[in-house]
Amino acid sequence: MKILRYILFPVMPIYFLVTWLRNKLYDLDIKKSVSYNFPVICVGNLSAGGTGKTPMIEYLISLLKDDYKVATLSRGYKRKTQGFQLANETSTSESIGDEPFQFYNKYKKDIDVAVDADRQNGIEELVSLEQVPDVILLDDAFQHRKVKAGFNILLTTYSNPYFNDMVLPTGNLREPKIGAKRANIIIVTKCPEGLSEAEKKAILNKINPENYQHVFFSTIAYSDTIISDDLIKSIDNLKTFTLVTGIANASPLVTFLKSKNLKFEHLNFKDHYNFSTKDLAELDKKELIITTEKDFMRLKQYESLKKKLFYLPITVKINDKNKFDKLIKAFIKH
């Protein structure tokens, strides 16, 4: 893969120019964006996946759901439906996508979960509901310039920050680094515990935020328990198991499990992987399977796996949480 990226290096300037020009046309108002007179918060990244958008959306849901009617709007990546879909009791990961299905399963009593590749149309559909949302959270829409969110949260990982990266196909950036200037908040995600103030300052200097931008650092907090549809087990009591992941970067999870001195084999699939009949037959031979919550949403539909399938919950911990929360709530109020 790395060799192929180096071979494609001559294509990179073309990709850079096309994405830069597209953004410039929006910045100059030649290409039109639609803005709204109610709170729309976008969570996205410059990199191609794996920055922690899903737990960040869930953090915002938990922060806001008790005070506001919240709706999430995602593209619904790799779903088998078209157009606008509002999640309901018949929805599956195939009809609305992995992450939206996860949101719906966890928060269906509190929020609306919708998908639409056309975010403008999706927002119009949401505001036409009988109960109009007070706040709409756009999942992975930083490059969707047809919609101008009132507030942009940009995520970048500690291990591969956007300021050290290049645009596709040689690097992982979907657009040039200057796109970060559109963000109101930049969060460096998946940081190690105990990140020193000196290292935070060094990262802050490289980001070089504008006066209107705020930078935060976050870590992943893993649960001490694993969960199935029916059971909860302590992770410390596990003997051996199979770890199954279909996410962009499983390294933090693997590192955590190894730090607990647990014995496991790791079956690592690509992000949003569609498990084949052969894959499922192999998984059926395993005694205990632990996976991510996103992968759990896809795999739990298979009856043969239900009694052996568990997921490890994660949450996001943000440094200076009070300041972050106040910024979000201040935007919504004003």
UniProtKB/TrEMBL annotation:
Coiled coil: none annotated. Its EC number is 2.7.1.130. It holds the Pfam family LpxK. One of its GO terms (cellular component) is plasma membrane. InterPro entries: LpxK (IPR003758), P-loop_NTPase (IPR027417). One of its GO terms (biological process) is lipid A biosynthetic process. It comes from the Bacteria. Belongs to the LpxK family. This is Tetraacyldisaccharide 4'-kinase. It comes from Flaviramulus basaltis. The gene is lpxK.
